[in-house]
Amino acid sequence: MSSGGQSSAERGRAAVSRGGEALLSVHLSVDYRNKPEVLREVAFDILPGEAFGLVGASGSGKSTIALAILRLLDMRGGAARGSICFEGRELLNCGEKEMRRVRGRQIALVPQSPASALNPALRLETHFREAWQAHSTRPWKEARTSVRDLLVRLELPAGEAFFRRYPHQISVGQAQRVLIAMAVLHRPALLIADEPTSALDTAAQREILGLLRGLSREFAMATLYISHDLASVAALCQRVGVLRGGRLAECGAVETVMGADARVGLVASGIDGFIHAVNAS
Amino acid sequence: MRRASIAVLGAILIVLLCADWIAPFPYERQFRADVAVPPCRPYRLGTDALGRDRLSRLIYGGRVSMVLAPLAALLAVALALLAGLTAGCLGGWWERVVTTATDLCLSLPWLFLLLAARAMLPLNAGPATSIVITFGLLGLLGWAGPSRILLAAVKRHQRSDFVLLARSEGCPPWRIALVQILPNLRPVAAAQFWVTAPAFLLSEANLGLLGLGVAEPAPSWGNLLREMENLSAVARNPWIAAPLVALVMVVSCFQVAISTGDFEA
Question: Chain A partners of B159 at a C-beta cutoff of 8 Å?
Answer without folding.
Answer: 75-76
